[in-house]
Amino acid sequence: MEKFVIHGGNSLHGEVHISGAKNAAVAIIPAVILSDGVCRIENIPNIMDVNIIATILHEMGAKITRVNKSTLEIDPTHIKNPVATYELVRHMRASCYLLGALLGKFSRAEVALPGGCDFGVRPIDQHLKGFGILGAEHSVAGGMINVKADKLVGGHIYLDVVSVGATVNIMLAAVKAEGKTIIENAAKEPHIVDLANFLNSMGADVRGAGTDVIKINGVKHLNGTTYSIIPDQIEAGTYMVAAAATGGDVIVRNVITKHLESITAKLREMNVQVDEYEDSVRVHRTGTLHRCNVKTMPHPGFPTDMQPQIAVLLSIANGTSIVTEAVWDNRFRYVEELRRMGAEISVDGKIAVIEGVKELIGAPVKATDLRAGAAMIIAALAAKGTTYIEDIQHIERGYEDVVEKFAALGADIKRVYSNDPVVQTA
Ligand code: EPU
User: Fold this and answer.
1) Residue 84's pLDDT is what?
2) What is the CA radius of gyration of the chain?
3) Could you tell me if the CB of 375 is within 6 A of ligand 1?
4) Which of 145, 158, 161, 172 has most ligand 1 atoms within 8 Å of CB, for mutation?
5) Measured in angstroms, how far is the CA atom of residue 342 from the centroid of ligand 1?
6) DSSP-derived secondary structure letter, 304
């Protein structure tokens, strides 16, 4: 097993280039199944989740060519069997997008129940409700979900909860359905807009993505296309918070500043300077961090995927802050790890009360999930002493070249095998 060893205390300086958005890539790659031609996707992050979803498509018969580190060419025209087995699917939540894409293409799909980050119950009732309104029946047997329709016909779908996954899956199933589909109370995340733009570049007719009503006029065919994925909002936010936590000065390049507004606003409230440029932000801090309250919300609210990272920053701010997690039931599992580094945080249900401490102290900790792992890196960089982070496979699911990028900013971070000696003898 590998782990990260981080000697804290270096403030981060320099520039970091943000990769393509994970959560857009894991929706767009399955969406290629709907195409009748070859799709060239650029700005794909080279991360485990992308490799898994690409491998699943390959196993189903798609021809995948890696043009370069961030570009894949996918020819889905040889996919004949709309089945994705447990072996690969179990590692990844977003594999449920195969349901919508295969259903949209073949009017049937059989996909193992998904895995992915564990932070509470992760139902897919809204996905299935949407499929049902489009005319598909579903059943569960042997750990597999089956969906099938004689013919998909557009319909009017009101989502009971704002769900990224349900919005994506319904869009995928509806683009080739007969007639018009309306999704109300749709998710508005940047990756929803990116997926809509990708589908439209294949010839789909999707309007309103980015608002809470998405209208889709079904089309008969979707053609191959060339498309470049948007930059990763959460990766950018993670480096912004890391710069702030270490009292550094970092230019975060290849971002869409509009997507970062909620993060920028909170950093400014905490006495961190954020300067916005056309496609970059500069984050620098010299003064003490001020306390503030944070509540996670669907976009354009503060992203739940930045909640653990901002909590680290608040744990070294002056005063008491309250963090409310309003999206997931159980996203404070990392708090126990952070407490081991000296953070003073109490959790009651979906609310964490954080008493700022002067400094965190390095300790052995675990990455309990992807974003929790990113938070552990930030805590370790800001802490006094050495931190060992285990279960880094969670982090590598979603952050491209994380060690290299932090090291280039001056962080003392290394990936080692658990059996490697981590303490140097004199
Ligand atoms: N929900 C339902 N029923 C459903 C679907 C969702 O009740 O059918 C509930 C969930 O239990 C949750 C809320 O709705 O309380 C939001 O869930 P959503 O469906 O929006 O989440 P998701 O699609 O499973 C995506 C991201 C997550 C991110 C959430 C919220 C991808 C691949 N994953 O998950 O990203 O936390 O949206 O923004 O896009 C991450 O990148 O670290 C990550 C976990």
Assistant:
1) 86
2) 22
3) no
4) 161
5) 30
6) G
Per-residue model confidence (pLDDT) at position 87: 77
Cα–Cα distance measured from residue 286 to residue 86, given in angstroms and rounded to the nearest whole number: 50
* C-beta 117 within 6 A of ligand 1: yes
Atom of ligand 1 nearest to the CA of 93: 32
| Spatial CA neighbour of 3 closest among 386, 415, 424 | 415
> Closest residue (by CA) to atom 11 of ligand 1?
122
**For 267-318, how does the pLDDT look when each residue is reduced to its tens digit (9 = 90+)?**
999 999 999 999 999 999 999 999 999 999 999 999 999 999 999 999 999 9
Report the nearest-CA residue for atom 27 of ligand 1: 305
Nearest to 244 by CA among 215, 281, 283, 196: 283
Cα distances from 303 to residues 153, 164, 207, in angstroms, run: 33, 12, 24
SS in 3 state form for 235-283?
HHHHHHHHHHHCCCEEEEECCCHHHHHHHHHHHHHCCCEEEECCCEEEE
> Which ligand 1 atom lies nearest to the CA of residue 125?
8
Mean pLDDT of the 169-183 span: 98
CA-to-CA distance for 426 and 409, rounded, in angstroms? 28
Structure confidence at residue 424 (pLDDT)? 47
d(CA 67, CA 41): 10
The Å distance, Cα 275 to ligand 1 centre, comes to: 30
Contact between 195 and 24 (Cβ < 8 Å): yes
Nearest residue (CA) to ligand 1, atom 31? 23
- Res 413 pLDDT > 50: yes
Q: Is the CB of 296 under 6 A from ligand 1?
A: no
43 Rama class: left (phi>0) / alpha (psi -120 to 50) / beta: left
Cα(165)–Cα(119) distance, integer angstroms: 15
Check pocket membership of 307 for ligand 1, CB cut-off 6 A. no
What does each C-alpha distance from 264 to 254, 281, 331 come to in angstroms? 16, 9, 22
Q: Is the CB of 163 under 6 A from ligand 1?
A: yes
Ligand 1 contact via 164 beta carbon (within 6 Å) = yes
Decide if 292 is catalytic: no
pLDDT at 115: 59
172 lines ligand 1 (CB under 6 A): no
Q: What are phi and psi of 153, to 5 degrees?
A: -125, 135
Q: 261 to each of 144, 234, 241, how far by Cα in Å?
A: 40, 12, 13
Q: What is the pLDDT of residue 422?
A: 55
Residues paired with residue 384 on neighbouring β-strands, in sequence order: 361
